[in-house]
Amino acid sequence: MPRLQWSRATSATLLALVAALSLSACSDDDDNTPDSGVKVDAGTDAGSDAGTNTDAGSDAGSVDTGIAWDGGSAGTFSCEGKTQATLNFAPGQEEALQDQVNTLAECTTIQLAAGTYTFDNAITIRQNGITLAGAGKGTKGEGTGGASSTVLVFTNAAANSNGLDVVGNRFEVRDLAVWNAKKDAIRVESSVDVVMRRVRTEWAEADKESNGKYGLYPVKSKYVLIEDCEAYNAADAGIYVGQTEYAVVRNNVAKQNVAGIEIENTKYAYVLGNTAQDNTTGLVVFDLPGNPIKGTDIRVKNNTITGNNRNNFASVAASSSTVSQVPAGTGTFMLASRRVELTGNTWGNNNTVDVAVLSGLAIEDDVTLWEAGGFNFASADVYIHHNTFQGGSGDSVDNGNLSPQLRPLGAALAALYAYGETQGTLGVEHLVWDGLDPYGHDRALVNPINICFANNTLPSGTTTAIVDLDLQAAATLATQGNLPGAWGRTRHYAATKAEFACSGFSPALTIGDFIQ
């Protein structure tokens, strides 16, 4: 039996639709100053801080080369033929470790024995060719290292400090856990050839807005691999890739975060085989205004994105990020995104919606603010095929905890479908499109931005699978008190609707074709 909880909603609640069209947006990467005090901006200071220009010098058109690189050296820096050293540390030698990282020679491996390491500040690395390796990442909830795990504890570290704070090409971190970082657990910025493998980031307490914002956080970088990692309890995103070119995110687990996995303003990413469960929102792909990289060419394959119904605990005061506005129960949303393919994934039991395609104008309607990314506010070319929708989704928007002020789009959606219930529509469809793109388009067109929804497995008895909200018109009618008119602007389609039963976009994505 559907758990619809909106029977008391009125047309006044639908005023939130107007707010949803003018939410203020702020880059989730709003602090460019690492804790070392060194100002880092992508493509400029990274050269002097890291010792090498971050430009990999490769053919930007050779997408598969970057993705198939698989954690090897794809950039211009290499340790081949250079002196390489290994430094060994054990618990109790934290001060010596901190002293050594300040004077590291390039191509150094820092080997950490099993056990617990306690730090009062970030481990700051500003050198190329560094590997930080432990004895194992341990298991969820393990805040102390064991016989076969290495746990770096930052519970009593300085306020606003990261756990690992890195600028350096050909950096790898593996087989360890970062516990209770004050800010980001592992932040790598303006770097080329970044590998995060078998790492766990975690905060001890769930649902705390004072937890650090990000678990794994590579940003403004190139050639990034994140695999076999775990991320828990981040107050923004457990696993994040932002303003980056060429990334593989595979076989990771993200749970109990506000956002499980985020791909933001990124070109050429392959998101494969991950589990995103029990987050506010499972997996998101979006661009934000003001960032110079226009995200494109993202393949999302064979991921499990189910049961993402955790109440949103992002701090509104500390971060006006897009994620703080997401209603609980959101499986996946794409915003200001293009050339995105979703295949082989499983969605289900996401209380608000399984998949949403939104315009950047839904969070920032001033088109001029999108100029830095080439006016990249519009979503287009989204291919959703051969996925499984288990059901149990779309029947309790934002878990019924509606807030027009904090999460206006969720409140608007709930109010709209409260009226829809009276018209026989008992839940939000599996695919929601806000209907805003392209800007000023002819509303007679059913699918002008080429959203393809084909060959998906749907629950038995599904009648409509796709909805066009026509959000702008619905908002106008709602402000006039015309709730039936607002609902009447929405259009609901079966999965077999011809205009959506298309076969993708051209040229097709080749990202990840060499990775099985």
TrEMBL record:
Keywords: Signal. Residues 169-323 form the Right handed beta helix domain. Residues 1-27 form the signal peptide. Pfam families: Beta_helix. Transmembrane segments: none annotated. It comes from the Bacteria. The keyword Magnesium does not apply. PROSITE patterns: PROKAR_LIPOPROTEIN. This is Right handed beta helix domain-containing protein. It comes from Corallococcus carmarthensis.
